[in-house]
Amino acid sequence: MIFSNILIRWYLENKRDLPWRKTDNPYLIWLSEIMLQQTRIAQGTPYFLSFVSNFPTVFDLANANEEQVLKLWQGLGYYSRARNLHKTAQFVATELSGKFPDNYNDLLKLKGVGEYTAAAIASFSYNEVVPVVDGNVFRVLSRYFDVETDIAAASAKKEFAALAFELMPKDNPAIFNQAIMEFGALQCVPKSPNCGVCVFNSSCAALQKKKVDQLPVKSKKLKVRNRFFNYLVVADDDENTIIQKRTAKGIWHNLYEFPLIETDAPEDFDFISKTIQDGFFKNNPLISVEEDSEKNIIHKLSHQHLHIQFWKVRVAGIIENGIDAVTLKTFPFPIVIHNFIEKDFLS
To answer: Which pTM was predicted?
Structure first.
């Protein structure tokens, strides 16, 4: 089809030189696809290279401990991806003798692998004729063909997958999948695409109808929840501090943090000071509480905004299970706490 030929020609002339495009190794392709979910390529590439350096095979990743994996993942966010990555590596290494499933349906059975990731691995590693459908694909196809289907609707993925399947050259599905995603990432971008230089500007329905900025159609905006985190950065007589592991389900599961007072709204010094006196560090008399000079940090996640304040707390004596600054930096933390430690810890 003319669309596919033009698209693939554009791709071959404009594609970025990315490390995971130089292999059909399913381990490396799986690794890159998991990392690039909800992550820009510029941000994800150094993490990919670091993981490949530390865990060159699925067996190496499987044999790592979870904290090693989370530490290397630190800063990428959506940490459930890292935990699922680790568990899947262990499953592939032990149950499948290190060999990834070689087809879309079996890939879907792996933990953390959804329809898009399974399609990517199946087509890029095994040249299976299965289309990938991500935000880029929704955008390109909805604009080119003037498809007004709400991409948030349950039926949308099936509709767009069927359209992509029709367009896909059956002898080379991998290059088509790469091409349409790259085209959406570089040319048919979400806002203000440069349609004047687009290879499809004479045939794109949205451009002819002046609807480029209206497509794709997407409803349902996430309701954002506000949470207020007050972190207690403790220092005892030895300048040791204390941290805890987030074991409850939810954000930052199995990462570390300072003792936390979560409140329903911003709270002042008097409230925090009294809460510390009433419920924290009973074996160590409280010497001082000081609000960190930094203003409240708003850490934005996809579905919640965390309003974070650090409080420097000095106690007398030696705190139980305290750790020094060097040891502290070896633990995996959410990036906002990691940045505080690197910049401000006990300063």
So the answer is: 0.86
